[in-house]
Design brief:
Layout lengths: L8 E5 L4 H12 L3 E6 L2 H15 L3 E5 L7 H11 L6 E4 L14 H29 L2 E6 L13 H21 L4 E6 L4 E2 L2 H4 L3 H4 L8 E2 H13 L4 E2 L3 H12 L2 H11 L7
This protein binds NADP nicotinamide-adenine-dinucleotide phosphate (NAP).
């Protein structure tokens, strides 16, 4: 980055692990200061120290549980109080609630929607006006291939919430691109992170062949390049781009039949 370029700041949710941690590193490498948020403060502090030391960036951390409806406003308030303006927003925090829809208490389903949908929309809503005003904004919303193909049994609200995030990103991108505010839905397939340990599906998904797995660093790099290029939807990896393409152009009844059969490998139903 040339010396005269303004130093920009990226807010990354779910930065304590996996794709979020990898995206934070890419932004730091590309010359952004950072605000990192997640629930595990010790992880955030360790990452912040590492990024400060390796890239000389200013890195702040905010511990927050996005299942708390008050969290997005508090995060934005703390950032403003510190005199920081957010130029890039990465809505990444997320997890899955596997199994039959009624097997999990409503509160767990509600919390997931709060993290994966409401917090995404609210953080965007609160930070977008400043980006529009300053005529610079980059928003990455982490969706999933699960939001682009017909839903399987098990994980009922996961794919649906990712479909919403993708549609939402598209609208924001089309509304604000002329103001130099780009939004990209990045939709990965299976990626090596803590995701499947957190939802206790590691053993089951380990049966999937190696070629179906991406690494978080590749997803993060592709996410950064996609948003900087103004791409509206980006599916990392050639294999998953082909899956999405086939799912779009194959008759729905046939895709559903395939999903029903194949998803037994990676879904608890
Ligand atoms: N891994 C995959 O196969 C895959 C595929 C497609 C899409 N994705 C999406 O990628 C995103 C990142 O997931 P990942 O694979 O990197 O999983 P991960 O390694 O488990 O990381 C998830 C991150 O989200 C944060 N998070 C979870 N619940 C939170 C809450 N209530 N409040 C605040 N932060 C919370 C976690 O931090 P704390 O626990 O410290 O709060 C962690 O930093 C998610 O949106 C996921 O749906 C993953």
């Amino acid at each position: 980055m040339p010396d005269s370029a303004p130093v920009r700041t990226a807010l990354v949710t779910g930065a304590s692990a996996g794709i979020g941690q990898a995206i934070a590193e890419v932004f730091a490498k590309e010359g952004f200061d950072l605000v990192l948020t997640a629930r595990r403060g010790d992880r955030l502090e360790a990452l912040a120290a590492d990024l400060r030391q390796r890239f000389g960036r200013r890195v702040a951390t905010i511990v927050a549980d996005l299942a708390d409806p008050a969290a997005p406003a508090r995060i934005v308030g703390e950032i403003a109080a510190a005199g920081i303006t957010v130029d890039a927003l990465v809505n990444n925090a997320g997890y899955g609630v596997p199994g039959k829809f009624t097997d999990t208490p409503w509160e767990a389903q509600r919390d997931m929607l709060q993290v994966m949908v409401m917090a995404v929309a609210e953080l965007t809503h609160r930070l977008l006006p400043g980006m529009i005003q300053r005529r610079y904004g980059r928003i990455i919303n982490i969706g999933s291939v699960a939001g682009l193909v017909p839903q399987s049994a098990g994980h009922a609200l996961y794919g649906s919430s990712k479909a919403l995030v993708t549609g939402f990103s598209q609208s924001i991108a089309l509304e604000w691109m002329p103001h130099n505010v780009y939004a990209t839905a990045v939709c990965p397939g299976f990626t090596y992170t803590e995701f499947h340990d957190v939802n206790h599906m590691r053993e089951q998904v380990s049966r999937l062949p190696k070629f179906m797995w991406m690494d978080a660093d590749t997803v993060a790099r592709e996410a950064f390049e996609a948003v900087m290029a103004g791409r509206i939807i980006h599916v990392p990896g050639r294999f998953y781009r082909m899956v999405v393409f086939l799912a779009r152009y194959t008759p729905r009844w046939l895709v559903l039949a395939v999903v029903k059969r194949v998803s037994k490998t990676y879904r608890r139903t």
